Amino acid sequence: MPMLLEDVYAGAPTVKSGRHITTVNEFTDQSPALRPEVLAEATRRLIELGDFEAGKILVEEDKGAILGSAVSLAVGLPLAVARWYTYDLSGHGISVPVDSEYFTGTLYINGVEPGDRVTIVDDTISTGGTLIALIEAVRKAGARVEEVLVAVEKPENGGRERIAECFGIAVRSVIRIAVDPGTGRVNVLG
Ligand SMILES: O=P(O)(O)OC[C@H]1O[C@H](OP(=O)(O)OP(=O)(O)O)[C@H](O)[C@@H]1O
Ligand SMILES: Nc1ncnc2[nH]cnc12
User: What is the mean pLDDT of each run of 10 residues along the chain (190 residues)?
Assistant: First the structure.
């Protein structure tokens, strides 16, 4: 079976924004437009990593929500989305600070209730900042994180280690990549 996700990253251009180099690719940026077979493959491979004994999936907008929607449909679990803005409904929503590779700000989660068991899904883990914020938000909501599943991991930025240290959770990832700061090329790691 062809491994489309690896092909997407191996051929992806990169851009420099400030101190960071990021890939611009079909899977996370829809540039070029995301082929359904790429999303289907990423979804299938991510689902193979998970147990899905939780009752709900939580993602962060907007990149994670595309993958999260496909996973939600495939496994038949409801989808909660953390957003970068609040709905300002009194008594609703949990806010947490987030400090990620590219952004610092506040995330707001909705739709996670006390007692929920949650599978967190994201497209990418780099520093782990986004996932740390999501895990903290789930706990703040009185719910429990059962598993954390990501499609793409940038191991050099230590996200997995931070999450293991802070929460004792082992992140599961489909593929691992490194962006070479010299050439700007993406290496898909073995
Ligand atoms: O491990 P981290 O350092 O937190 O990086 C990973 C996060 O970065 C990307 O989101 P981005 O910041 O591009 O935001 P978006 O999904 O809201 O577009 C990606 O979707 C992850 O959520
Ligand atoms: N799409 C992406 N490519 C490379 N690094 C990232 N870090 C967060 N998102 C990323």
Answer: 89 86 95 98 98 96 97 98 86 84 92 96 98 98 97 97 98 97 90
- Residue whose CA is at the smallest distance from ligand 1 atom 20: 63
CA torsion, ordered 58, 63, 69, 72, to nearest 10 deg: -40
State pTM to two decimals: 0.96
| Count of domains for the chain | 1
Ligand 2 in reach of 100 Cβ (< 6 A): no
Establish whether residue 124 lines the binding site of ligand 2, counting it when its CB lies within 6 angstroms of any ligand atom. yes
Q: How many angstroms separate the CA atoms of 119 and 77, rounded?
A: 10
Containing domain of residue 164, as a range?
4-188
ipTM of the shown complex: 0.93
CATH code of the domain covering residue 19: 3.40.50.2020
- Mutate which of 16, 22, 25, 61 for ligand 2? The one with the most ligand atoms within 8 Å of its CB, which is 22
Pairing of strands 56-60, 117-125: parallel
